[in-house]
Amino acid sequence: MYRQLTADPSAERHRRAYSDRPGGYTFRLDDAELSRFRAMAENAQRHEDRLWSRAGIGAGAAVIDLGCGPGALLPVLARRVGPTGSITAVDADPVACAAARHVATELGTSTEVVCADATDTDLAPGRADVIMCRNVLVHNGARAGALLSHAAALLRDGGHLVSAEPDVDGLDFGAARAEREYDRRWAALMRADGNDPALGRGDRLADLLRRQGWRVVDQLCWTDALVIDRSPAWAAADAIVGRGFATAAELADWQQALERRRAAGPLRCSLTMTAVLAVPPGGSQSR
Ligand SMILES: C[S@@+](CC[C@H](N)C(=O)[O-])C[C@H]1O[C@@H](n2cnc3c(N)ncnc32)[C@H](O)[C@@H]1O
Questions:
Q1: How far is the CA of 264 from the centre of ligand 1 (A)?
Q2: Pairing status of strand 215-228 against strand 267-279
Q3: Could you list the pLDDT tens digit for every one of the 287 residues in the chain?
Q4: H or E segment at 282?
Q5: DSSP secondary structure code for residue 112 in this structure
Q6: Gap from CA of 27 to ligand 1 centroid (Å)
Q7: Cα 160 from Cα 54, distance rounded (Å)
Q8: Could you tell me which CATH class the domain 2-166+198-221+274-279 is placed in?
């Protein structure tokens, strides 16, 4: 699937313009990433059902998935909003948009995929009952405020935001030492870009929203037990080495450790997520 998506050279050129800059999104989409996103999306709806229901993610709702990535959440959202609901999926990465479009064709819900920056989408204001934004603010550091004020404009009066972010600092790989070390460099790169890798820890996400004037209505924290092929940090390998947070020799060492560990079976790791239900500044009372 990933090879099909990157076969279009113009999509790859746009992706590079989007992500090959300090502060840009550092992950490369590939099959390992696609399966991780899908597993996380299925787990999310199980753990966050209370928040999603309070937000109004049910039959007939108009939902925007801001920073939709490869569209892992779309089948889950489509199951909830059904044929009378609608989904608008937004991402700045053309390769992610191509993957999301591919997913959208198989859904029985009206789904539009828009390739745009989440801080300025050109979508009509007030069109959404709910904005879902997950694993996105953690990559947006200084731009989080602009993203949240645009999200507020896209919500109808009485609409809700469901925001969920990981605690990347707390990723636990058990005995896989190379993965742990690699992850430490990734977290350092995130910090250098002005991101908080522990955004999904404690009250940090809720505090970020409150600082931007949002009212936090509900919040929960859960731990995702993932069985994955490799640490998510591998998706940021180009940026980690390209920007000097690890040497090519270190990467080669970690690659060998990865191959040895792979031979022993998949990697089990735990990742803590915090999900927050919020209403925008000046928004009316939530249900
Ligand atoms: C880690 S993925 C998460 C995808 C999806 N939300 C999920 O949880 O499965 C983050 C996605 O957000 C997108 N993204 C990050 N910042 C963005 C921005 N400012 N505008 C549009 N997309 C953005 C990235 O391109 C990437 O596809």
A1: 32
A2: antiparallel
A3: 434 444 444 445 444 544 544 455 555 666 677 777 888 899 999 999 999 999 999 999 999 999 999 999 999 999 999 999 999 999 999 999 999 999 999 898 899 999 999 999 999 999 999 999 999 999 999 999 999 999 999 999 999 999 999 999 888 877 677 888 888 999 999 999 999 999 999 999 999 999 999 999 999 999 988 888 888 888 888 899 999 999 999 999 988 888 888 888 888 888 999 999 999 998 765 44
A4: none
A5: E
A6: 10
A7: 9
A8: alpha beta
DSSP assignment, residue 196? -
The 8-class DSSP code of residue 287 comes to -
Listed residue (2, 29, 7) closest to 18, CA to CA: 29
Q: Give the Cα separation of 215 and 238 in Å (integer).
A: 38
Residues framing ligand 1 (Cβ under 6 A): 25, 37, 41, 67-69, 72-73, 91-93, 96, 117-119, 134-136, 139-140, 143, 147
CA distance 181 to 203: 26
- 205 to each of 103, 155, 170, 183, how far by Cα in Å? 29, 19, 15, 21
Residues in the chain: 287
Biggest alpha carbon distance in the chain? 55
C-alpha of residue 88 to centroid of ligand 1, in Å: 14
Give the C-alpha separation, 258 to 262, whole Å.
Answer: 6
H-type helices in 88-155, by residue range?
94-104, 144-154
- How remote is the C-alpha of 136 from its chain's centroid? 4
Q: What is the DSSP string of 13-67?
A: HHHHHHHSSTTS--PPP-HHHHHHHHHHHHHHHHHTHHHHHHHT-STT-EEEEET
Q: Are 271 and 171 in contact (CB under 8 A)?
A: yes
Helix, strand, coil shares of the chain as percentages rounded to 5?
Answer: 45, 25, 30
